[in-house]
Design a protein that fits this description.
The protein is mainly alpha-helical. It is about 55% helix and about 5% strand. The chain has 18 helices and 5 strands. The strands form 2 sheets. The protein has a 3-stranded antiparallel β-sheet, covered by helices on one side. Strand 1 and strand 2 form a beta hairpin. Helix 1 crosses helix 4, helix 3 packs antiparallel against helix 4 and helix 6 runs antiparallel to helix 7. The longest helix has 22 residues. The model has no long low-confidence stretch (mean pLDDT about 85).
């Protein structure tokens, strides 16, 4: 929680106290991690209740739960452990953190409460807490959109559904939680999400010089193939079938592999030209290595150095490197690190455009490049070809990714209308 408002204070005898609505409350020993969690929950409930302390809050604070009781904190931990055992590393890379973040408001508001006491009213309170606090706390951070609030609420329901299957809580709890319907448009003043749209080619080309060689190649591959970022981040030379004019990468594990469907990513001449310079490596080495990008950036900075590099400089750099925490760099980019690289490049571009008194470009994400490819392929070859390239089983899904070319409609009406 934010430090705005009441905060924990340590007494001389090592206890933690805080003042709410003019009264002082004790939360346990200051050094115990549970004390901070208990305080965060109490503060969240206090804010949600209009800065008032209720009898229920006092009962939860004084009771503090039995040691043998399944609390919501423990239930959430066991649910996340179950997901970690059940799913593949690829699924966890894309979904595990999102579910953990979705459960955080539940833990903040009700973490020390008994899981068996959770019900529809508490779920609605957690949802209201999501709406009021947005991505951050104390009203900071961008407010969540309606679809994200509904997704996070459903993640909480899935947690209790799993608990029922494991006989950890009564089946009546999940049945009751299903009565909490998802938010509809306009309810409780929740904003609507911004739809994903194709990235304009001018914006795409303008960002490329601000990206590293590896990230620049990645986004160009996404632009030409329409693949999901997670489908090409760990691409290796041995994954490519280069026997034909169009290269093919058949994914062993993908979003719909559990339904027995095949996912082929197709690389035409433009995408092949992008990949060519990265193929001269071991067959099992990732094509796009963040380690290579860091090494190349360090070499470029050193080459651009204006002052001489003395032995004393190297000694100082080695000492500073040993003192700071070691940076963990993976074998390949993650969807999050790729998005961060693109976001930072756009920020640098807009900074330079501002200095030149030019209009900044709108931010875009790597996943939007899939929409760009779908729209371009649909316009040139039709929606059925776009469906196959994007890996959809139904053209109705393709229509959400590949926007209809309004220019063609205008040309047709100029002739027929």
């Amino acid at each position: 929680m934010s430090h705005a408002g009441p905060s924990l204070t340590q007494t001389k005898d090592g206890l933690s106290i805080a003042k709410f609505s003019g009264k002082t409350y004790r939360f346990g020993r200051f050094e115990e991690p549970e004390t901070r969690r208990r305080f965060d929950q109490f503060k969240a409930q206090w804010l949600l209740n209009g800065r008032k302390v209720t009898d229920e809050m006092l009962r939860n604070l004084r009771g503090r739960g039995r040691s043998d009781e399944l609390t919501i904190d423990r239930l959430a931990d066991r649910f996340l452990e179950h997901l970690g055992r059940k799913h593949s590393d690829e699924w966890k890379a894309n979904n595990h953190d999102r579910i953990r973040i979705a459960l955080q408001p539940l833990r903040t508001l009700c973490g020390t409460e008994a899981a068996s006491a959770f019900g529809p009213k508490r779920l609605q309170a957690v949802r209201e807490f999501m709406i009021l606090r947005g991505c951050g706390v104390e009203g900071k951070g961008k407010p969540l959109c309606r679809s994200e609030v509904n997704w996070r609420t459903n993640a909480i329901k899935r947690c209790f559904q799993w608990a029922v299957a494991e006989e950890l809580v009564s089946g009546s709890i999940h049945h009751a939680l299903k009565a909490v319907a998802g938010l509809r448009e306009g309810e409780f003043g929740v904003r609507e999400g911004t739809p994903r749209v194709p990235v304009p080619s001018e914006s795409f080309e303008a960002v490329l010089p601000y990206l590293s060689r590896q990230v620049r190649a990645l986004v160009r591959v996404l632009w030409w193939t329409g693949a999901r970022p997670s489908e090409v981040l760990s691409l290796r030379p041995c994954d490519l079938d280069r026997s034909g004019g169009t290269w093919v990468h058949r994914r062993e594990k993908h979003k719909t592999s559990r339904y027995g469907r095949v996912r082929d990513i197709l690389f035409g001449p433009e995408a092949q030209a992008v990949l060519a310079e990265f193929l001269l490596r071991g067959p099992n080495e990732p094509l796009f290595s963040p380690r290579e990008a860091i090494a190349e950036d360090a070499a470029a900075r050193r080459a651009a150095r204006q002052t001489p590099l003395w032995a004393s400089h190297l000694t100082r750099y080695d000492r500073e490197r040993s003192e700071r925490e070691a940076r963990v760099v993976g074998d390949c980019y993650s969807p999050l690190s790729l998005r961060q690289a693109v976001t930072r490049a756009i920020e640098r571009l807009n900074h330079d455009r501002k200095l030149r008194c030019e209009k900044p470009i709108k931010r875009w994400t790597p996943y939007q490049l899939r929409h760009s490819a779908g729209t371009r392929i649909r316009s040139a070859a039709g929606i059925e070809v776009a469906r196959v390239v994007l890996g959809h089983t139904d053209t109705r899904m393709t229509e959400q990714y590949a926007e209809f070319d309004q220019r063609k409609a205008q040309e047709a009406m100029a002739r027929l209308g």
